[in-house]
Structures are given as structure tokens and as C-alpha cells.
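Hello, quick one for you while I still have it in my head. Could you read through the record and tell me how the C-alpha cells relate to the sequence? No rush at all, and the record is pasted right below.
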Amino acid sequence: MRNETMSSKTRWANPNCRAPTARSCIPSLRMAFNLFLLLLAVSGALAGAQAQPGVAGGRGDPVATIIPIRTDSPRKTLATFLRLQREIDATTYAYRESKTSAELRHFGVLLLQAAALVDLGAVPLSSRRETGETTAIYLMDIFGRVDLPELENIPDVSAIDGLGEKQRWRIPGTPIQIVHIDDGPREGEFLFAASTIQTAPRFFEGIRATPLRSQLGVESWTDAAVQFTGPFIPAAFVDAIPDRLTALWLDTPIWKGIVAILATFGAVILLAGVVRATDRGAEGQIRAIGWRLLRPATLLAIVYILRWFLTVQIDLSGQLSSIVEIGAIFLEYLAWAGLFWLTVLTFFELLILSPSIPEESVDANLVRLIARCIGIVGVIIILSFGAQDLGLPVLSLLTGLGVGGLAVALAIRPTLENLIGGIILYIDKPVRVGDFCSFGDRLGTVEKIGVRSTQLRARDRTLISIPNANFANLELVNWAQIDKMLINATIGVRYETTPDQMRFVLVTLREMMIAHPKIETETVRVRMSEFADFSKNINIRIFALTNDWNEFFAIKEDVLLRVDEIVTKAGVGFAFPSRTLYLGRDAKPDDERGTDSERKVADWRQSGQLPFPTSTTERIAAIDNSLDYPPRGSASANAMTESIAAAAEPLAAPEIEEAVKSENGRLDTGVPASEKPPQERT
């Protein structure tokens, strides 16, 4: 039947309304921000609804002020529900006539108050509102059909003790009970028992044939509520819907389900377009992250607007409403997590590029690691609250971790060690990204220092991943931080090389090293080092002025080629492992020199001056510093002679100058001339 007063699917208020006024009753930061975005999305549409302080509807509305609910006894709880039922009946009648946002908001608040009289403590947050409002509608259908006792016959505060130990009261003729809440946030109140959620629908089906007492003339609040729509849906549109589309699907009329699917499909297309547009504009790391910020922001806006449209204007109900609500909560928290993650990354990337921070005082990789750690912690917290809203006891689980905290700490110890190891690598900076280093018995270039592991590219181009805790404990040699590179080589020349040939080679090699522009002059060391098994060895120890490996090997190659040229020009050959066999007659020892040696030792023994195991103190003092070094005739010896002469000029005692000056410029040691070396005897 379709007429202006009795239609069950037109011009009805929304019993499942998520109106902004109802949301403002929830003291939650998330709800407050959701309300802000919702108001932005529908501000133009709600501009005509002019609110007035102290009135539930809006500015200038003739709607009655909302009266607080009373739950201090079974009588107060039932009386409050019956009062709300009468007000809902009157508000729905007014909404049917004018279909304004004021009556809709008032209706939503009244229905929320009715749902608050039901114990919903065991219902997940994501479906708590839908379940409470649906149960309240079933109770309205039941109480509009059964005969209730007079209020004075219902237990009041003074009669609570007579309810028994469990303090519960059952409404006569129904399975509905009003019970005392013993714990939780609503402790001490009398509410409709949690079992009402299951018993009310079953009991209603048994009394459905009983006429409903209502001034609206509807047959059932439960059947009529699913056809309700918001003020933006014209009554003519709802009247034009074929009857077959008003049948229920997932407890919602089919036409509402079709609208929900089409609206969701349109939202997906819009979101895909935003994703495509942000991909095109992503050039550079900062710009890419900035563009990607539009994705979670767009998803949030779509979720809020779509939820408002489907729950307030289309007014989904039943199972489909629960599915939409769960999906909206999931996407909402997912979008918030993505928005938080990208915002943290963007902030720290801008911090890295800030000109006020000196380059040497901040490590970009350390800043990025800190950003990721903050982002991960924030995402986990946001998703935990989302899971809690969906009914998963994540927060309770996290709270209970205090009991098993030790076991959890032991379980995550390797992860924490790797995280701390990564932070130590950034703070201590033994290596940085891009450095070539030795670690253990391997070599590689650091490519990434992550939260858990460090990745290095080996010389054979394989990628090595080492846990940060292990890598930080290794002996690391950072080749990238050297300022100059050592060339340490030993060459061997043949034993046929004479001492003067060896001197020529050594001098020429030193001069070549000093003249080389890529060799550090101050540290050049070219010396004859030893008599080896088959060669006279020369050690070359010099520093190349570079820290690049390719240039180092080029310099070393050039030096070795020049060494080859010098040895060849000197007429000296390189030694190599060999055995030389000489055939000849041994020369007879000099008998006269041998006799002199024996006589000298006999004189030492007879005079008690045999220098074994050591020489006498007088002998040591006599020969101390008596050899000429640097060798006589060398540039170093001449420079030393001039230095000694210059230093002797300011001496105050002329007799000391005459006594200590010798013929060859050396200071007199006080040793008798007969015991001086031949070159120092006058």
C-alpha cells in the first residue's frame, strides 16, 4: 500500500543514523576528527540545518531538549525506555511530515539513548552501535505489543534488595530481563541483559501477529526501519522503487544494496585515478613521497563520505550495514597508518635537506633509520586500535604481555640486538653506505644499513647480508677513509751486484720516488733490507697520494715499471730462485794475517782484556761513535760538518774550540791516535 500516511518505505527517519550530533557524544579524538571531516564533506548540504545550543535538533528547531537516561533501578530503566519510545514515535511522525535534518538528528540521539540501555559490553566496537540500535527497535516492537505492568509494581531503588543475590528482574510475559551490572565502565547500572540481543528477535517473531500500538500506523518497527532513508533521498524516488526491489538482501532492501555497490565502485574508480595521477607526478624522492601522501588522504575522504552516504542517507541495516561498517573501519585505520608513515618519511627527508643542518653533523641514513623506526611504531599502534575497534582484543593482549614480558623479551632479543647494532653502526660510523671495507676475511662495498641487517656488495658482485649485531662486532677495515695508500714492495737483485752498484740503484730509486708527483716525498723509504737466500733485497715503502683504488693500482704500476728501468740501466739483474755451481780451486788462506790474528787474541788474554763475553768499559767508551756516518763524502756528511762548524762559533772558551777541532772537521773523542781508525789519525 502506497499513500502519504501509511507507506512503510517512504519518508521515514533513520534508526541506524550516524548523525554528527550523535558522534559528538563520544569523547574520542578519533570520533572528533571523523566528525570534522564529515562536516567538511556535507557542510554545503547541511547548511540549511541551523543548530541552536541546548536543542537537540538545530537552530530554531521546535524539538524538545534531550533528557538524560536513568538506570539506577529496573523501574527507572524501563520507564526511560518507554519515554524514549514515545519520543521516537513523535519525532518519526514529525520527520515524516517535514523530512528535515533537525528531526533526523533528534531521532538519532533518541535511538542512541535507547541502545545505551542495553548491555553491549561483549559486542565488538565495530558493530556495537548497529547491534544496540537493532536491539532497541526489537524492544520497541515487543513493548508495543505486550501488556506491561504498572510502573509502581516494578522494583525501585528501595526494592533492589528483594531481587535476590544476582539482582535481576524479568519483565512479566517476556524473556527480557533487566540486570545489575557488576563490573566494567557501567558498573552499578541496571540495563537490559546482554542475552536480550539474541532473545528479543526470537520473541518478536512469536508475537509478530499481535498489532503494534503506534500513532504512525506501521505494522512493525523492524520491517519499517529497513526502508528508512535520509533527508537527501527524495520521497518520490523511494515511492518509485518497484516492490520486488524492496525485498531484503542481507537484512537490507535490495535497492539499497545496489546503490551501495555502485557507490563503492565509483569510489574505487576515483581512488584508482588519484593513484594513477600521483604516479605520474612522482619525480624525486621528496616529491614522490609528497605525491603519495595524497593517496591515504584521498582514501580517508572517500571512506568518510561513503560511510556518511550509506549509513545516514541510504541507511543500510542488518548484515550489510555491519559489513560496510567493518570495511570502513578497516580502510580508515589503514589510511591513517599510511598517512602517518608517509608523513614521518616526508618530515625527516625535509629535515635531511634543511640548509640549517651542517652536512657533517647529520647522517642521512641514520635519520632515515630513525624515521622508519618511528613510522613502524606509529603504524603498529594505529593498526592495534583499529583491530580493537574490529573486535580483536589486541590492546588486551598487549596489556597481558606484562605477565610474559620476559619470554617475549627473550624471543625478540635477536631483533632488538640487530636494531641496536644498526643504530651503533650509524652513531659510531665505522663504515658508511658506499664505503669499501674488509669484514672478517671478506671484502665488499656497503650498499645499505637497514633496521635488521647490513647489505654489502662483494667483489664478485654477490650481495652479502649480515645481521647488524654480528656486523658491528666484526673487525672492520674501512678502505674508503684512508687519505693515502701504502705501496710496500721488496725486490731482489743478484748477488753479483757490487756495493757501489747497489748504492747507485738505491740513490736512483730514491730520487725517482721523490720526483714522482703522486708519491709523498716526506715518507719515501728505499733501503737495502737483507741478504736473502738467493738475492740482495731492497725494500720499497712509499705512500701514493690517492684514496681511489683504481688510481692506486695505476700509480703502483707506474712506479714498478720505473723501478724495472732503473735496475736495467744500472746493469744489475733481478734475482730469482736459482742455484749456481762454480768449478775452481780455492785460494790458499793468508798465513801471515792468520798468525797476526792469533797473536792479537793471545795478547788480549795475557793482559786480561779478552772482550768476551763483552768488551771492557774503557774500550767501549773509546770506540763509541767513532765511525763516520753518514759516510765521508756524502751530501749528508757535508751538511752535518757545516752544521757543527756553525754551532761551534758561539763557544765562549777559545781553548775548547782548538782542542776539539780535528783535521777532517770531526770532533775529537779523546781517544789516542794509535787507537783511532786510519781515516781519523792525524
Remarks:
- The chain has a mean pLDDT of 75.
- The CA atoms of residues 296 and 335 lie 5 Å apart.
- Residues 318-353 form the longest helix (36 residues).
